[in-house]
Amino acid sequence: MIPRPFEYHAPTSLNDAVKLLGDLGAEAKLLAGGHSLLPMMKLRFAEPAHLIDLGRIDALRGIGIDGQVIRIGAMTTENELVWSELLQQHCPLLVEAARLISDPQVRYMGTIGGDISHGDPGNDHPALMICLDATFVLRGPQGERTVKAVDGFFLGTYTTALAPDEILTEIRIPIPAEGSGWCYAKLKRKTGDFATAATAVLLRMKGGQVEDVSIALTNVADTALKARDAEGHLRGKRLDEAAIGEAARLAMAICQPAEDLRGNVEYKTAMAGEMTRRALRTAASRVH
Amino acid sequence: MAKKTVVSFRLNGVETDVMVEPRELLIHALREQCVHTGPHIGCDTSHCGACTVDFNGKSVKSCTVLTVQAEGAEIITIEGMAQGGELHALQEGFMQEHALQCGFCTPGMITRAYRLLKENPSPTDEEVRYWMAGNLCRCTGYQNIVKAVQYAARKLRGEAVETSHPLLEEAGKPSEPVTA
Amino acid sequence: MGLEPNLERLTQLEGIGCARKRREDPRFIQGRGTYVDDVKMPGMCFGAMVRSPYASARIRKIDASRALALPGVIAVITAEELKPFKLHWMPTLAGDVQAVLADGRVSFQNQEVAFVIAENRYIAADGADLVEVEYEELPAVVDPRKALEPDAPVVREDLAGKTDGAHGARRHHNHIFTWEVGDKDKTARAFEQAEVTVTQDMLYPRVHPCPLETCGCVASFDKVKGDLTVYITSQAPHVVRTVVGLLSSVPESKIRIISPDIGGGFGNKVGVYPGYVCAIASSIVLGRPVKWIESRSENLTTTAFARDYWMTGELAATRDGVIKALRVKVVADHGAFDACADPSKWPAGMFHVCTGSYAIPNAFVSVDGVYTNKFPGGVAYRCSFRVTEAVYLIERMIDVLAQKLGMDKAEIRLRNFIRKEQFPYQTPLGLEYDSGNYETALRKVMDAVDYAGLRAEQAARRADPGAEWLMGIGVTTFTEIVGAGPSKMCDILGVGMFDSCEIRVHPDGSAIARMGTITQGQGHQTTYAQIIASEAGIPASVIQVEEGDTATAPYGLGTYGSRSTPVGGAATARCARKIREKARLIAAHLLEVSPDDLEFDLDRFVVKGAPGQAKTMKEIAWAAYNNVPSGLEMGLEAVDYYDPPNFTFPFGAYLCVLDINRYTGETKVRRFYALDDCGTRINPMIIEGQIHGGLTEGFAVAMGQQLPYDEQGNVLGGTLLDYFVPTAVETPVWETDYTVTPSPHHPIGAKGVAESPHVGSIPCFSSAVTDAFAHLGVTHMDMPHNAYRIWRQSHALGLDRR
């Protein structure tokens, strides 16, 4: 459980980091919280020749509001999300979900940007970002561009739309409408485990009917999934058991989980349905 | 082999320099170079928390931190808990509430609980369990660990403390069969 | 006895029954423990193991040249290098042999192939990566039942043609032994004549004790003096010394084995592992200290699993639930080498305690030991040898019978208990239970939890078709067998399973005591002192207890199978009594009375009828070094080697209430009530801690632990990501209770306690989980009861349909 040798770089500005990444090329990896990367390096599954530590770039941290958008620095840690009063007020879904990620020590180090950039379908932020319609700010040698989470940022297991010379710098989340209901329902075997299945829901009701709903699923395919059919089915309907059941069925229909010790395909698919029911019911109870 | 560099940090209040390869894990630098063997290695994969140290005001698993990341850091380990010859309230609580058996997880547990009580001086039992869930113990079943953290919390709040295990409750009683 | 206990002196003594705070704690809470990986020696180098990726393969070639070329690599050893020393194979505790480093072939995944010694652990890891091994993969077998098929792959080519094993004839190339106990014919007749019979297959899956500290050692051979010192994570340091002596032909007098602080054992640290042997051999050759420390994955996949018992139980009974006979058939998966830690004569340990707490007149047990391409072990994970398996079998079978008869699961137990007045009780499988009071224990638990009320609530829940959560109630009333053991029955490598204590009282009245056992968290340094305090009148606070260093401690068989209190504790009590009796002679001399005129009062001898005339132990200790009666040796020391006349039989009654989500399989333990009877209670605080820990490990085993294999013999889930070790969040809150039924043959009536909660709780969880589905005809569900497996049961019954 010892990593292979590598060179370590700790730039203090984003420009320096981008330049280093460009210069070192494919041999380099970015170090954020390190709690996915370093274990993989200790197992010698990952063997970068260079590590670029983003931990000393203050500009990458912090949670703020800019008009109708919440802006979160990529190096903001999970515990900072958990403890953010701003998020508790404007985006409690993210707080609830961050509380379900790994364990306290890992949350002190693990970052939202690292979680997103890693492209692991077991990570929780991808589905949350899809559910919240987040936009990612990516910085490369040619400057900055933005990509929406729902517009194909998550390409597959460990692959994203990030170019090899780009760094995810910021997450922009439109503030959910006042009075929205929310829930992240996650089934896991124990503290520290990835989800067997999880569902993120953001729900807006009007006159007893679903005005809008956003549903995303964790760890039931090679990327997080947006459950579009389920969303479409619910819009304009009363959120009764029949509607919830059909939405769960439609969510299950898009699942393609991989069998592992957490369960087989049938179980994980069924659990995606159960978590969708649970998240919808809980979200409905929180609408005000 | 990559070139070694000097890394400087404060360890339990003492300026400390170590010479490391970039890949050297903080737990190894602390244990091997600084001879602070309180933090232990239990799993290598950041699951067990035996290697927990306080790092710039955060509880971290030092098996998953590179020593080079500690440049300029303020690090507290179990060796730095007692001050001026006085045990920390947590150390006292762990002993009074029988919150340890083999002792292997104990330094990480106490170090984690130290930060927890700084952040939340009056946790509920449920909050203690939730915020201590990054530390595994194979011996105690956690029940007495929760009691110990609460003992320390009370003491740190200036309240009276008492062990839940009085010395003589059963002693002196005859060991005769209890019959219906 | 006339004298009123003096509370002040009792408090100072801190003897038996006191919740004395632990002597071990000050060093652990300050990070000053000394575990094996904390040991550093001048010139110490570090060893790393090269392991096989295949479960079954021939080794064509090992090329260490690239590793040896790496600066800092000192040596690479393989079986070839060990052969001249005859160290490439080693004897196991079960009478088999095990490859130290693979001798031309590997038989399980992660088997030890080469050992790389380097200047530090970083270079050792790099060096291990550079050793190139060419394998020819062979078919593997992982299911012990398939392993006995005629054309099954051969696990052990080295045993070709060997028709006799350590435990009798072998009938197949993967067969190790068949062990039978009980009266086969009489039991068969009881089944033929029975009004009711039930049969149930059950698998006790392969699990691992997973102590938080992995295994490791530091071996240091002094070439000048010819002395070998080994710091080692061992639950049995004296046995290790004997094994090392046998292997190395270094006399035991030149070998010093030290078990320093041990970060939990739970059976994992009983065996002698290839890593230890490689470190020792390397140190002897290099003349430098060599450290070897396992990673967690190595620990979970190579050093000593537990269980892996494929069991079929049968019960014969009358229609009103009186049990007439038990029959059990076991296929025991021992992995690639038979490295079980059992007393030599009993290849299935004390599995024959499987008639449990019940007066069953007839029983027969047959166990087949089998080789598979899985890692060796078969240790007792927080239990006495195979007792967990035995208790699981009988407790599950009682439930199965109750369901068949439509009887309540507590009621059927009350009907079949061995009665208090039947002790000592001879079981049909040859054991003599020393004492018990089962009905009292169970009734106390039923009252405490309002058992009738719980059953009523459950009935209402079952009647509600819309209930999302099913309710299960588990009951177990187990009997443990611990304290191995009488040397006429129990030995390890021919050494009887006695244990020992030596006490030296110093002139100032303080004392040092050393035992052949070794604490791994049980608190021996605290509790042994309490026994001595009560028995010899020396305050526990001035008694230094030391264990684990073979250079100073008397020979003993170590700590596992809850044997410390029953055997080591008995030796300690008897040793302390020897001190007391010598002190009596000295006191009589000082007081100028006959020894018979004195009575012992806590910490002094008092002249009968003259309470003012007394000599304290402190005064007597001083006199022992300057003023003893003529004919008596000076000094105040004693030693005791205790060979127990019988085992002890702790017991308990447990009850679990849990709720199961029929749609997801999630489980919530609502209540767990554990009543234990461990006889005389030495330190109630430590007992409670042991019970909490045992219950938590039982919860882990029942609800989540398993080391599964795929068909190719790849071990799955060998990290703490998958292997279930519950955190404070998952762990239930425990309720504990007790009764006291002292052991009649133990000097202080104590029985041992640490393992009962593990042994007793596991079938209780299975009982509760199965009970949640019992009204639908389910009689048994195999562990682990994780959400996925429970959901499959719910799904099969259609309960998850909306």
SSE string of chain A, helix = H, strand = E?
A: EHEHEEEHHHHHHEEEEEEEEEHHH
Strand content of chain B is 5-15%
Write down the domain tally of chain A.
Answer: 3
CATH architecture of the largest domain in chain B: Roll
**Strand sequence of the main sheet of chain B, in spatial order?**
2-1-5-3-4
Radius of gyration of chain B: 19 Å
Q: How many strands, what sense, and barrel or not for the largest sheet of chain A?
A: 5 strands, antiparallel
Overall spatial form of chain B: elongated
Mean pLDDT of chain A: 97
- How many β-strands of chain B, per DSSP? 5
Please characterize this protein's 3D structure:
The complex is a heterotrimer of chains A (288), B (180) and C (802). With 288 residues, chain A is of the alpha+beta class. Helices cover 34% and strands 26% of the residues of chain A. Chain A folds into 3 domains: 7-51, Uridine Diphospho-n-acetylenolpyruvylglucosamine Reductase, domain 2, CATH 3.30.43.10; 62-174, Uridine Diphospho-n-acetylenolpyruvylglucosamine Reductase, domain 3 (2-Layer Sandwich), CATH 3.30.465; 181-286, 2-Layer Sandwich (Enolase-like, domain 1), CATH 3.30.390. Chain A has helices at 14-24, 37-42, 78-82, 85-90, 92-99, 104-109, 112-118, 125-131, 228-234, 241-253, 265-286; strands at 7-9, 28-31, 50-53, 63-66, 69-73, 135-140, 143-148, 154-156, 159-160, 167-174, 181-187, 197-206, 209-218, 225-226. Chain A has a 5-stranded antiparallel β-sheet with strand order 4-5-10-6-7. Chain A has a 4-stranded antiparallel β-sheet with strand order 11-12-13-14. The longest helix of chain A is centred in the C-terminal third of the chain and has 22 residues, at 265-286. The mean pLDDT of chain A is 97. Chain B is elongated and about 60 Å long. In chain B, 28% of the residues lie in helices and 14% in strands. Chain B folds into 2 domains: 5-79, Ubiquitin-like (UB roll) (Roll); 89-156, [2Fe-2S]-binding domain (DNA polymerase, domain 1, Orthogonal Bundle). Chain B has 180 residues and is of the alpha+beta class. The longest helix of chain B has 14 residues, at 106-119. The model of chain B is unreliable at 174-180 (pLDDT under 50). Chain C is built from 20 helices and 35 strands. Chain C is globular and about 85 Å long. Chain C starts with 6 loop residues before the first helix and ends in a 6-residue tail after the last helix. By secondary structure, chain C is α+β, with helices and mostly antiparallel strands. In chain C, the strands form 10 sheets. A 7-stranded mixed β-sheet of chain C has the order 3-7-1-16-13-14-15, with helices on both faces. In chain C, strands 11, 12, 17, 18, 19 and 20 form a 6-stranded mixed β-sheet that branches. Chain C has a 4-stranded mixed β-sheet with strand order 23-33-34-35, with helices on both faces. At the A-B interface, helix 2 and helix 6 of A face strand 4 of B.
